[in-house]
Each structure stands twice: as C-alpha cells, then as structure tokens.
Amino acid sequence: MERELALEIVRVTELAALASAPWMGRGNKNAADDAATKAMRAMFDSVSIQGTVVIGEGEMDEAPMLYIGEKVGSMNGPEVDVAVDPLEGTEIVAKGLNNALSVIAIANQGCLLHAPDIYMEKLAVGPSLAGKLSIEDPIDTTLRKAAEHLHKSIADLTVMILDRDRHESMIKQLRKVGVRIKFLSDGDVAGAMAPAFPETGIDLYVGSGGAPEGVLAAAALKCLGGELQGRLMPANANDYQRCKEMGMDDPFKVLTMDDMVGSEDVIFAATGVTPGEFLGGVRYLPDNRAETHSMVMRAKTRTIRYIKSLHYLPNKPLLAELSMKRR
Ligand SMILES: O=P(O)(O)OC[C@H]1O[C@](O)(COP(=O)(O)O)[C@@H](O)[C@@H]1O
Fold first, then answer.
1. How many CB atoms sit inside 10 A of residue 235's CB?
2. Residue 119 alpha carbon to ligand 1 centre in Å
3. Does the beta carbon of 162 lie inside 6 Å of ligand 1?
4. ipTM for the complex?
5. Does the Cβ of 88 fall within 6 Å of ligand 1?
6. Which PANTHER family match (predicted)?
C-alpha cells in the first residue's frame, strides 16, 4: 500500500468523529453511531482503494452500510481488507465520558481476521512486554512476569479492565495480587492500546471485550510494537458455528498477532471523539472551527503521526446534513 493512503484514511476518521461529536452527552448512542457511520461511509468514496469491509457494523442484513462484505473506496487502488468502527464507544458519547474513538485499519486483502461479533478474552501490552507473556498463564503468573520484565514491584503495576460484572472473579484476583486497577467504562480498542503509551501509566490490558475490537486493537498494536493475544469466547453452539463458518478450525485457539493481522503492511488511523488516554476529543472553537486529534501509523515503519486539525465547519456540508446543529 502506498504510504499516502495513511493520510487519506485519517480524513475518514476525522469526519466520522466530527459527525458523532455533536451527540456527546445527549443520551442517544444510536444517533451518534448513525452519524459517524454515514460520514465514514461517504468519505470512503474518495479513498484510493478497492476495499472489502471485513470488520464493520454487522452482517449485510443487520447493517445498512459498512456491513461485512461491502465494497468501499474509489475502486482504483490496491485490494485491501478494511476494519472499521466509526464510533467505538457509542455509550461513552451518549453519556459524555472518555475514550470514544473513530477507527479504521487497512491491510492487504486476506490479512485481517474475520472476527464474529462475540466476546474475546484479551491480554494486551506495550513494546516492553511484547513477546514476554502468555494469555494461557494464570493471571497472577502473568503479573509476576510483567513486574519482573518491567523491573517494578507488583504493587506498582497498573492494569486496565472493562468495568463489567463478568470480570468479578478476575478483579478479585487482581486485588489479591495487589496491582492498581484502572477501570474502563467502555471502549476497549483504546483500552488495549493504552499500554503502548507510557504516558498513560497503564502496563497491561486484560479481560474480555468485543472480538472485532480485538482485531482493530491488534492492528494498532502491530504499528505500535505492542502485542495483543486473544481467545474467542463462543457462548453457545450458534456462536461456535459462526466461528467455524468464518474459517476458524479451532474457535478456542489462542489468537496471536499474526493470526489477527497477517501482514506488516497495515495502516491504522484513529480520531478522538471524546478525550481519552492518548488522544484528545473533538473540541469546538470560536468562528465555526472544530479541532480534532488523530493518530495514523503504519506497521512497516512504526512511525506514529499525531495530526491536530482545525476544521472550518461551514465548508463541510455533509456534517450539517448528518448531525444535529450545535446549540
Ligand atoms: O459492553 P460489553 O458487552 O461488555 O462489550 C464490550 C465492548 O463494548 C464496547 O465497550 C463499546 O462498543 P460499542 O461502541 O459498539 O458500543 C467495546 O469497546 C467493547 O469491546
């Protein structure tokens, strides 16, 4: 893929973030998601790819756009797999909380795992722990190994996990071992990426979240030099069958980075919708301007670009059509 594609992709996440941000704190997650999805879909038409959505808004019969299998792009560029989450953290935006992102990952055709929309158990780390831990170890062993590699005491480790009842037993174990826990309300793409940014103070991300979000986070961590190990959690025979139909011989197998993102030729872009651990959110400024904070990275070079853009809103008519007017 041409490196210029990285900048084309970030324009798409920017517009999706700008479309959903007016819904921040208005208690309407579907409207926020809908605006982001429509903006992202419309912007894709100008991106020079022949893309196929492999992670998107749902199956063709569930989602009107950005559904799995949909073709996106201007159809005059490389054939690529596209993973999107136009608004990762719909509830976050509805409630006006932190860590909502608009995200896209693109890789050569056939290189992104087609993950069903079920839970995935995750263990994510930054570059200093990449390759050093195993999701198959008991959590206390993992934490002990992490502390050793980071030359920290266990009490100084900070672990991030989604605040969910299903994590009760894991949280008890974390408390017993004595680490700090930083709870996440939603948005585990940002959560899994956080350990790759030393300024977050987060050493590990653990627990279960969406499988599609796992693949998006794996793409980001490939660019960041971190690691995500995953294990799908089919809850019943139907889930198990869906995994099989998506080409997984053993749906319970540990998924490595290469299983989820089978190429170094991957681009990841994210724009903050609300403020987060490593990206600012959309900010409205005087004179009809809005500021966005994005990052775009390629695994090949591992360059991380932060892009702060000042948008002049009257020149973005699509936004006026898609989102409610600011009051
Ligand atoms: O809320 P659950 O069922 O625990 O699911 C966790 C998943 O939901 C999210 O927190 C938010 O997902 P949405 O943006 O689709 O609302 C994901 O980041 C995470 O993977």
1. 9
2. 9
3. yes
4. 0.97
5. yes
6. FRUCTOSE-1,6-BISPHOSPHATASE 1 CLASS 2-RELATED (PTHR30447:SF0), FRUCTOSE-1,6-BISPHOSPHATASE CLASS 2 (PTHR30447)
